[in-house]
């Protein structure tokens, strides 16, 4: 069994999680510890005990450890990518890309540890100076989803450690392998005992235990339902909280768009990574004049996508990550048809030589904004095309959602691009690019019900992982 890491010691648990390969249900990736509330309490206590010494380490010490971890992740990207593809189901190139991203994030925050700055200014009172400095928040709990098994743990852990916090990570039940590998790398990179703790297992069991054990801050990525209940629980306990939740991201295709480019953006944004990205383009809002050509061409390209085993070189789309997610996708496909949307292509469960959760990407047309297909996050390879009378109508449809993570526009007009950038109600806007696919050195996050609290990633990560102190210095 792969153990939990608590206070620098690998500890087994009474029960285990079986990590299955969604490309091949006969391939068991491994057995992983499933922690108890006591394990979580001990992990939080270990992080609490380790905090004073870790928060007083020099930026150089923290930077060196993060840099070492980043180097190992990058050096082992092939092996770690294979593990990730086996447990989550994204294709090997996608998985290696994600691992590379995780390594780059550690390198970036190795630099950020050295750039933790304050401000010194004159007081409004004579003879007094004001120093504004940043300090770590304390013990940070991290709860992560299954769709980015190493990148999301990395983009939360790296800034937390860089700025002097100690960490307890609770990864998603479905994908403990990549988080375990990350813990192993961090441990060997030289982190003192208790600075980083890993407790794998059920969110329903370990989440409440984490909050009750007395963490100072919680960074969560996952579904809206879980996030909103955690936000309430954190508010009652005075825990600083940051939530990244779902999306129902629009890609608007203006009449003047380059057809092939727009189709490529839609195909990538809607279906790559099996549509299991919070930034996936699940609503394709297409202006009247280009609409029919766009739907015809996108249907051809979708039908040509090769769905298969995540490790097979010819696969472009891996399996859906779990049985429950596949059932959810199929029920949305059936529901879309029942609501009157036109299924242009796909949507069915596919058989391959290995037993897995394969699904043909589903493309719907003639959708209306009130359909569930257009309102609820599906989190799978299901895209809905809405017809718009004009760019203004398309923008109104794009903003007609409780979510606000990413929004895209395909156009050749600078004026439209500028207008969309200013008026799309989303945290991230992409022009002539897929809505999914972001950089690690700039802020990541959304508006409305997609996100809550400060942004993640880039220099902006410091807002969540530090607290500000204002000191008045008299003479
Ligand atoms: P989920 O909410 O079911 O689970 C996320 C994590 O929360 C898991 O680790 C789970 O064990 C844990 N959890 C479950 N119940 C809990 C509880 N009561 N208390 C504490 N923790 C609990 O989400 P998921 O199915 O793993 O992930 C899919 C969702 O994540 C989608 O909605 C997707 O949009 C979202 N997501 C968002 C982003 C983003 O940055 N906006 C990125 C990736 C995924």
Automatic annotation (TrEMBL):
GO molecular function terms noted in the UniProt entry: oxidoreductase activity, acting on the aldehyde or oxo group of donors, NAD or NADP as acceptor
Protein name in the entry: Acyl-CoA reductase or other NAD-dependent aldehyde dehydrogenase
Protein family per UniProt: Belongs to the aldehyde dehydrogenase family.
Family annotation (SUPFAM superfamilies): ALDH-like
Lineage of the organism: Bacteria, Pseudomonadati, Pseudomonadota, Betaproteobacteria, Neisseriales
Pfam family, one: Aldedh
Ranges annotated as spanning the membrane: none
Stored InterPro entries: Ald_DH/histidinol_DH, Ald_DH_C, Ald_DH_CS_CYS, Ald_DH_CS_GLU, Ald_DH_N, Aldehyde_DH_dom
PROSITE patterns the record matches: ALDEHYDE_DEHYDR_CYS, ALDEHYDE_DEHYDR_GLU
Keywords assigned: Oxidoreductase
Positions of the catalytic residues: 244
Keyword Nucleus carried by entry: no
Domain (Aldehyde dehydrogenase): residue spans on this chain: 12-470
């Amino acid at each position: 069994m792969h153990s939990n890491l608590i206070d620098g010691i690998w500890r087994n648990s009474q029960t285990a999680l079986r990590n299955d390969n969604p490309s091949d249900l006969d391939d068991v990736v491994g057995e992983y510890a499933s922690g108890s509330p006591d394990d979580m309490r001990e992990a939080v206590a270990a992080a609490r005990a380790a905090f004073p010494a870790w928060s007083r380490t020099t930026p150089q010490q923290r930077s060196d450890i993060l840099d070492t971890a980043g180097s190992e992740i990058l050096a082992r990207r092939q092996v770690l990518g294979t593990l990730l593809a086996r447990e989550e189901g994204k294709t090997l190139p996608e998985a290696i890309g994600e691992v590379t991203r995780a390594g780059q994030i550690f390198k970036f925050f190795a630099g950020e540890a050295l750039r933790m700055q304050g401000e010194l200014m004159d007081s409004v009172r004579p003879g007094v100076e004001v120093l504004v400095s940043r300090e770590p928040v304390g013990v940070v709990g991290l709860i992560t989803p299954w769709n980015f098994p190493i990148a999301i743990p990395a983009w939360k852990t790296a800034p937390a450690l860089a700025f002097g916090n100690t960490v307890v990570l609770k990864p998603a039940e479905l994908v403990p392998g990549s988080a375990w590998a990350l813990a192993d790398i961090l441990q060997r990179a030289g982190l003192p005992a208790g600075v980083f703790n890993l407790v794998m297992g059920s969110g329903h069991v370990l989440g409440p235990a984490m909050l009750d054990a007395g963490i100072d801050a919680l960074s969560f990525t996952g579904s809206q339902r879980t996030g909103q209940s955690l936000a309430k629980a954190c508010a009652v306990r005075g825990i600083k909280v940051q939530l990244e939740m779902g999306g129902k991201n629009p890609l608007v295709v203006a009449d003047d768009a380059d057809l092939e480019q727009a189709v490529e953006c839609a195909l990538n944004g809607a279906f790559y990574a099996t549509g299991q990205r919070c930034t996936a383009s699940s609503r394709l809002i297409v202006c009247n004049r280009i609409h029919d050509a766009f739907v015809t061409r996108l249907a051809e390209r979708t039908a040509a996508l090769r769905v298969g085993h995540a490790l097979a070189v010819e696969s472009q789309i891996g399996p859906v990550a779990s049985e429950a997610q596949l059932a959810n996708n199929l029920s949305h496909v059936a529901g879309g048809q029942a609501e009157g949307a036109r299924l242009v292509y796909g949507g069915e469960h596919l058989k391959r030589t290995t037993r897995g959760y394969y699904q043909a990407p589903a493309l719907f047309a003639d959708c209306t904004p009130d359909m569930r297909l257009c309102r609820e996050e599906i989190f799978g390879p299901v895209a809905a095309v809405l017809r718009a009378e004009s760019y203004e109508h398309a923008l109104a449809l794009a903003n007609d959602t409780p979510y606000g993570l990413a929004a895209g526009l395909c156009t050749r007009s600078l004026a439209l691009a500028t207008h969309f950038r200013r008026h799309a109600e989303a945290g991230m806007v992409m022009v002539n690019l897929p809505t999914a696919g972001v950089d690690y050195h700039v802020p990541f996050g959304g508006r409305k019900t997609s996100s809550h609290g400060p942004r993640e990633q880039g220099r902006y990560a410091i807002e969540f992982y530090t607290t500000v102190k204002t000191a008045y210095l008299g003479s």
